[in-house]
Amino acid sequence: RNVAASDDEFFNAVDLAKMADRGGDRRAKRFIAETNMEVAHSAWGRGDLALAKICAREAAQFGALKAQSFMEGVQMDEALNAIKEGDEDIAKQLYSKLSQSENPAIRNRAAAAMKAMPVRAEGKGEFVVRKTKRSIFRVDTDRGNGSGFIVGRNVLVTNVHVIERARLIKAVQM
Asked: How many CB atoms neighbour CB 12 within 10 A?
């Protein structure tokens, strides 16, 4: 891989190779798999776990042999990130899935990580706060302030009186 080339250039090359693959060129499959794995490794190194998984999945579809173990490594990182962000439930789900891996090293790492996770006793209120705190916003306007919460992608709900007749509105995550 030419390190000066951007991921976009590699995606363009992969798109061309997919056309060749539809035309029956067997070398195209190998190129697609290898290129996607290179982009996946690059993305993982930059911390872009979502792109790393997408590219690794596609590499697997085109025959990359190590794509599955790579994706499991990315999922281990996702679990660690979830723990750092205080979302132990996501980490537990990932570790539970990884503990079923065909790869014994991944299986053992996931089982050990799950055992090492802190056990937290929390009441219903604490659970609700932990699960919802990232979706709550303070809504500041030129006429005052209030609160709001996320209900969907790029959709924030607040009361009408908070933003009524306001010329400037700013939402700040609490």
From this structure: 12
pLDDT per residue as tens digits for the range 90-117: 899 999 999 999 999 999 999 999 888 8
How far apart, in whole angstroms, are the C-alpha atoms of residue 105 and residue 22?
A: 37
- Rounded Cα–Cα distance for residues 97 and 110 (Å): 9
Distance CA 43, CA 34 (A): 14
- Using CA atoms, how far apart are residues 28 and 19, in angstroms rounded to an integer? 9
Contact 87, 81 (CB under 8 A): no
pTM for the full predicted model: 0.57
Q: How far from the centroid of its chain's Cα atoms is residue 79's Cα?
A: 10
Q: What tokens does 126 get?
A: 């604490």
Whole-angstrom CA distances from 108 to 36, 101, 104 are 28, 9, 6
What is the spatial order of strands in the sheet that 169-173 belongs to?
A: 155-158, 144-152, 136-141, 169-173
Alpha-carbon gap, residue 7 to 54, rounded angstroms: 13
CA–chain centroid gap for 13, Å, is 25
What per-residue string of b and e applies to 47-79 under the rule 16 or more CB within 10 Å gives b?
ebbebbbbbbbbbbebebeebbebbbbbbbebb
